[in-house]
Amino acid sequence: MTLVHPPLVAPMIEGIETEGPTVASTNPARHGEVVAEVRLGGPEVLVAAARVARAAQRGWADVPAPVRGTVIGNFGRLVEDNADALARLVTREIGKPLGEARGEVQEIVDTCRFFLGEGRRLYGETVPSEMPDKQLFTFREPVGVMMVITAGNFPVAVPSWYIVPALLCGNAVVWKPAEYAAACARALTQLAQRAGLPDGVLSMVPASGEATADGLERALEAGVVDKVGFTGSTAVGRRIGELCGRHLQTPCLELGGKNPMVVAPDADIDLAVDGALFGGFGTAGQRCTSLGTLIVHESVYVGFRRRLAAAVENAPIGDPTRDVLYGPLLDARFAAGYERHLELVRGHHSTFGSTAVGRIGVGAPRRGFVGDPAEGLYYHPVVVDGLLPDDELFREETFGPIVGLTTYRTLEEAIELANLPGYGLSSAIYTNDPATVFRFRRGVSAGMVSVNNSTSGAEAHLPFGGNGRSGNGSRQSGRWVLDQVTRWQSVNWDYSGRLQKAQMDTTIPEADLDFRLNS
């Protein structure tokens, strides 16, 4: 069904009228269904939004932190009260199964609940001085204006990881969402703005990638953006990191992943298969934390492969409004990219898990498909066996329903294979041996390690982020993200009535360091 009058999503900036090209955000599960018409802002719109945010930020920072926390609590309550409508919009606009969409919305609520309390815990410290009649203090201060640029695979949860703590700490935010998830972005922005935020503190600007890069560069040169938060590809993250570095800024970069899962000889095989199925194919493999490569001990390989094949073959796939493992790919551009990755399957590989490889359709049906595959961007799940360390498919993020499989003999070899692609976001190991767990944890380069759980699944109060090709070591979520959205200020207060010079005027009592006890 095509909507006769789809809603218009335009840049949401207080007091600024914008004109620009319009694109359609469509339902990837139903060809021709336009979810929203999206008016894109140009580079000048992003700069204008940053200037508005700059003007509003100081007044927002002057609001006491516990009161800002109350506003964040209001935001969470509004999301909770509108949870079903927001989840259904997520499913409709990006094709995420409704159960997962509801979990994503709950993550916003959890994030708001956590940071409601942090409004009363933005602690500094009182530090003892080496001199008399002098006190030292530290304070957290907002960085200023934060530009947040996010992908659309988690169109509302991941933006909240940036927006909620940034606002709590007294920053203003300009948010550039993915164009293909703009209706979700508008809905989330509306809920946040109605929670008690002053005008201009949060704005949303849909824009193309080219316009975003140009607008960010102009805003940094104009000095109206103080921090950048980016979730997306490693390639784009490198460009943003280089640009911010020229302005002596450190961005918060959450990038791609080639996340390994190790299956040890003593693993619960059925549990490991469950973790591989959800980690590899949930959200159609379009998570930054999706399982990339299964690294299975050779002693359990045959049994694991047999059970995994059965699980993948029997997994329900299709209409995301029904009970399925995954629905369509996010957008036509991701479908095209995924098809290019399928070309990396080589002659020494074998594939299993479905009746075909590639797009599901009349010429390549999927047994047990739920719904009509001709309506959307549906693709077969694929497990590629026989991966070698030199294979591109082993080393590169694929962002789709494809998982690699290889074997190992020693834990050291498994760790080496896990680290080889150079990503370092998420990882998992299935074992019941504590020594194996701690050896793996210490050796793997990932910022997140799961034991007997999948590579996907973040809780709102733990740090989220990666290393290497997965990010620059910055972290989101929990109290750790506060270091991304605040800067430390130190104060020394001398009330002695005279100038006391550190390191020079410090009085140290004399000691007899030559003293020795009689034996």
UniProtKB/TrEMBL annotation:
GO MF terms held by the record: aldehyde dehydrogenase (NAD+) activity
EC code(s) of this entry = 1.2.1.3
Root EC class? oxidoreductase
Key words, A-Z = NAD, Oxidoreductase
Active-site residues, as the UniProt record annotates them: 254
| InterPro entries linked to this entry | Ald_DH/histidinol_DH, Ald_DH_C, Ald_DH_CS_GLU, Ald_DH_N, Aldehyde_DH_dom, ALDH7A1-like
Q: Which residues form the signal peptide?
A: none
**Which residue intervals define the domain Aldehyde dehydrogenase in the entry?**
19-491
Which top-level group of life is the source organism from?
A: Bacteria
UniProt keyword annotation of NAD present: yes
Give a yes or no for keyword NAD in this entry.
yes
- Pfam families named among the record's database cross-references: Aldedh (PF00171)
**Protein family according to the UniProt entry:** Belongs to the aldehyde dehydrogenase family.
Q: How does it assemble?
A: Homotetramer.
What is the name attached to this protein's record?
Answer: aldehyde dehydrogenase (NAD(+))
